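queue> pop job 88
queue> type: inverse folding (structure -> sequence)
queue> payload:
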């Protein structure tokens, strides 16, 4: 027996696709990177990338050996501060990087 119920669509295919694309864009997380700088601009590397949602952030190291769920993106700096003359810096990536072709 088929339990599905016929429902009239709210929109046509094009309108639905446009609505979903706008919704995905509006709710997309902001992308960020964590850079670690050594000395006074003597050397640096990108230690991690992350996504900041409206209520939390996710971060993963570039080596793939660390992942964390955080209250906010800025908290990622605590995990990548190495001490000494190394400083962790949060870099917000341009939103245009997040758009697909």
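queue> result:
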């Amino acid at each position: 027996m088929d339990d599905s119920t016929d429902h009239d669509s709210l929109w046509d295919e094009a309108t639905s696709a446009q609505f979903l694309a706008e919704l995905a864009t509006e709710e997309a997380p902001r992308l960020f990177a964590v850079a670690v700088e050594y000395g006074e601009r003597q050397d640096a590397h990108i230690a991690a990338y992350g996504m900041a949602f409206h209520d939390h952030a996710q971060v993963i190291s570039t080596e793939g050996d660390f992942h964390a769920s955080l209250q906010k993106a800025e908290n990622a700096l605590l995990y990548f501060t190495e001490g000494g003359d190394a400083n962790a810096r949060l870099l917000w990536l341009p939103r245009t990087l997040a758009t697909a072709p």
